[in-house]
Amino acid sequence: MPDEGDRHARTWMAFGAGERIWGKKLLPQVRRDLTLVATTIARFEPVSMLVRAEDVDLARSLIGTADVELITTPIDDLWIRDTGPVFVKGSAGWGGVNFNFNGWGDKQEHRRDAKVAEFVADRAGVQPVHTDLVLEGGGIEVDGQGTAIITESCVLNDNRNRGRTKPDVEAELGRVLGVQKVIWLPGIAGHDITDGHTDFYARFAGPGVVVAGLDTDPKSFDYAVTRRHLDLLHTATDAHDRALRVEVIEGPSTVREKFENDDFAAGYINFYLCNGAVISPEFGAPASDGAAKATLERLFPGREVVQINIDAIAAGGGGIHCATQQEPAR
User: Fold this and answer.
1) pLDDT digit string (tens) for 127-175?
2) Number of C-beta neighbours around residue 280 at 10 A
3) Fewer CB within 10 Å, N- or C-terminus of the chain?
4) Cβ(280)–Cβ(244) under 8 Å?
5) Confidence (pTM)
6) 11, 322, 323, 327: which one is catalytic?
């Protein structure tokens, strides 16, 4: 079970934003935000980006001279964290787990995106790993040493794994990912398209160290649940019976008003680790932007923390981690 912070061979992304999903008004800025994420990561490691044939010229014109590989293939949307494979190393070598993306419980068109996991695994030269679990990469966070954090609202949701129990899920994740212990957070279903993905609530900064988000907006549906998560994390232990050290990053409280959009993903937890860097969002809120950067610099002392504005992507309910998928070096 590789740690996300391990050395990467590359980052995978998808230039999948289309007018049908994003709308004419938001689409141009979404594409610019995707380009900014790709070119920022390309300063630190190779980036391969899936792009529809009709969008190749546009993607290349936006990316310019940055070292980003464009790979033509049919896709629906940009969220490769959820559509792409989860890379693993087992006794038979490297593989890519296909978790049967179903559009977050059939909420969105996903016929093309359902094929992305196997396409990327094949392109990366690893064996596909099959499972009958339905979940997304954003719904599971691992520490590389046998511990996973998962939200019940997503993985135990009937729109993905009807009838599955926690022991069922834990056993299968043990088989395909080497997970030895799952820390279950309740999450909250039905308020965003993901039904409460883990990567907006809690992330491992290293074995035994979790950085958790705290929603400071009393009007937000996440206000109460993030406090419940903190209570659970403070009493949890990992696969090696270590108590967790929990660090908190408060989210900005007013940025949703920029887009008048309840789906705006106003949190700093959706950062991405690449070789030598942490790529993190900033929201034009100086106090909370600065506090988030300072915490990430303290948690990742060997990495440069780079904050970028991805407001249009956030308006679609996601972030930098959602738009990226790491391929470990091997």
Assistant:
1) 999 999 999 999 999 999 999 999 999 999 999 999 999 999 999 999 9
2) 26
3) C
4) no
5) 0.96
6) 322
